[in-house]
Design goal:
- The structure is a homodimer of 445-residue chains.
- Helix content of chain A is 31%, strand content 24%.
- Chain A is built from twelve helices and 21 strands.
- In chain A, the strands form four sheets. Chain A has a twelve-stranded mixed sheet with strand order 4-3-5-6-7-8-9-14-13-12-10-11, sandwiched between helices. Chain A has a four-stranded mixed sheet with strand order 20-19-17-21.
- In chain A, β19, α12 and β20 form a beta-alpha-beta unit.
- In chain A, α5 packs across α6 and α8 packs across α9.
- Chains A and B meet through β1, α6, β4 and α7 of A and β1, α6, β4 and α7 of B.
Amino acid sequence: MGDRKYWDERMETIGSEDLKALELEELRKQVKYVYERSPFYKEKFKKAGVSPEDIKSLEDLRRLPYTTKDELRETQEKYGGLGGHQCAETRDIIRIQGTSGTTGRPLFIGLTRNDVNLWNELFARHAWTGGLRPDDILINPANFTLFVGGLTECSGAEHMGITVIPAPFVSTGTEKFMMLITTFKPTVLFSTPSATVFLEDAARKILKMEPSELGFKKGFLAGEALSEEERTRIEKTWNITARNFYGLADVAADIAAECGESPGLHFCAQGALIPELIDPDTLEPMVIEDGAEGEIVFTTINREATPVIRYRVRDMVRVYTKPCPCGRTGFRFHVIGRSDDMIKVKGVNVFPSAVKGVIQSFVPKTTGEFRIVLPHPGPSFGENLTIKVEYSKEVNTEDLEDLATELKTAIKQQLVFTPIIEWVPEGTFERSQYKVEYFEKLYES
Amino acid sequence: MGDRKYWDERMETIGSEDLKALELEELRKQVKYVYERSPFYKEKFKKAGVSPEDIKSLEDLRRLPYTTKDELRETQEKYGGLGGHQCAETRDIIRIQGTSGTTGRPLFIGLTRNDVNLWNELFARHAWTGGLRPDDILINPANFTLFVGGLTECSGAEHMGITVIPAPFVSTGTEKFMMLITTFKPTVLFSTPSATVFLEDAARKILKMEPSELGFKKGFLAGEALSEEERTRIEKTWNITARNFYGLADVAADIAAECGESPGLHFCAQGALIPELIDPDTLEPMVIEDGAEGEIVFTTINREATPVIRYRVRDMVRVYTKPCPCGRTGFRFHVIGRSDDMIKVKGVNVFPSAVKGVIQSFVPKTTGEFRIVLPHPGPSFGENLTIKVEYSKEVNTEDLEDLATELKTAIKQQLVFTPIIEWVPEGTFERSQYKVEYFEKLYES
């Protein structure tokens, strides 16, 4: 089993015509299913003047309205429990999961036995793509509770045959977590890219060992995009092959993973999700073709408990469609930012996360803190963009003009637009433990 | 499905001859299996001068040596990982669990896919016996990590078709836990008997509601014996039917449950465990017959990862074998104490937990704290037993003689022996957050 190339060869190497036929058949079933069982979708579809019978081709998917996370939150408040898009009987639902809910009420997700089985398969497909194998040993530091990183990822990994050590940091404690590493020598480091730093410190502090000495072989890095700088650092620090994995609690816990042979995350959820690419401004569909950048939208097919139709997950992606030597036919993508945060400056897409990257590369001359000034509502700006940047105490004010020139050049080179830099002294901006608001909206003050 | 009487009618109503035949066949396989794969058992069996071929009848089980938890801990320290009784390849193990390890190093348990499947079945058998059904909704406040109450109980409940809401208190937090109760209206309260008190307080404090108003229907009370006083209180407080469930991480997470029709927990693990009853002093086998009291010993059959042979779990039980109206043929038992703590006073079995019960019924005249004085190593004592008891500040010393007479009478009535009471003032004994040592061993000081 360890020698086979794919977990599910048929689905991972399916040709586009076969995939389209499968998607159309399942889409028609799913649309009929949600229309009959969900008051939420019935109302939505009626409002949009479309009924299940109108779905005759895959293109007809575009006739259906988009669904947003806010709508799902609202329907859960209105109907209680899983909300008006719950399509299976509660007695047929075996697991409740949810989004983290750090920004407000969590969004709840239900899974029937078939949903669990399908998610288990998706875990195995994407984990196999990312290099995991049944003889691996995975220590899981994720918080259990509703978070899919806990129970659901354990369920998927066990399904694949991986040895799972459930050891949520919060309840296991750092000392015992490290003891489990030395006792069972796990091969898979399951973490967000940023949390690896915490694990590194713990290894050094408690075991007095370098992370690279612990015997890990593979990084299963999910929950955030993995930059190439982070990959290099993590691979060296832990002496592992670091791969990025992608999933979404409200769509499917496991959707895509890097195969290591070509850039981007391979889409692995054929037959479970129909992906679309759209322009987040116009909401017009885009072709999924090499180099395209757009917002990714998912429609579940074969989902029983809480299906989502044309669900805007707000991830902006860059797509790769050139054939991959690994033989998988799923397109690949990088997550380049959140569409909620994207603005257009003279036709160029700008993400605060990208701006942040450049400004932080100027630390310690800057503090890394900044605000993008929006003179009027976005997302499009025809004028130069002003960015307020905190210079640090150790900079002489007479050097600021030169520093601005350097920073503008770097932003131009990396982000293809030239901003106006307005310096502000260290400590000007409020520090937040949660989500930083990178925009200063002049029209709101 | 909701209407059937048993989860697994064949096994739950199996006749004794059929069961014996099944047990013998599986026992012979298991003994051969562990002998061939486990250096720990091979050595043990050789030392005892017995080999797998010697097991020709069920009675021959008695020729095998007992196994203790300390031995398993030692073999895990010696060999690392799961220890010298690991019989399956690590690559075939999909889950690591463990005992809580509050008193020292945790004991680790491995499960192969077949072990998980069997444990899932055992969960369903005992949960069905205890009144749970697939249309139930179970909120799980148990700590995840290695504790079987987390991942393993979720796995079993999902297998049965119950809706599982994983919500470990430690990571979910009290507020969110209560929000989940009002959102999903779980029907099953999964808790230890003692932790229900904490949940009661939380409901009153956070929801400003009485526990009885929350909509729970069934108590799934595990981890500790449930006294009749506790049952009555919990049933009234929560407006539920409270049943006690029994399992052991190192043997099988789910072994027995109360059916509600006869006293005691029905043994539900036919085909997975062979139970024995032994005299904890002489280690001689006892007949499992109505009214018998002894230490229960389990031998796994059909166990792949970490089998245990004649494993002394140290639970002293009282057995019931009269036919039960529910039709289940498994014998029933109550856990009456830990054999480690049992002593014999003039031929009468005495458990500190029972002594504690009587002394605590005299609070606030006593503080509830006490020590049993052992003049020489036990477990048998031919002389009167001295118990040092803390009287509380509010008692006049001149009343102590009368109080001692009352206490002696109560102990005589409830525990069938008459102690010597030696009063000590409040605060004499060290308070412990962990396990209290109720014995004062004169021969050790």
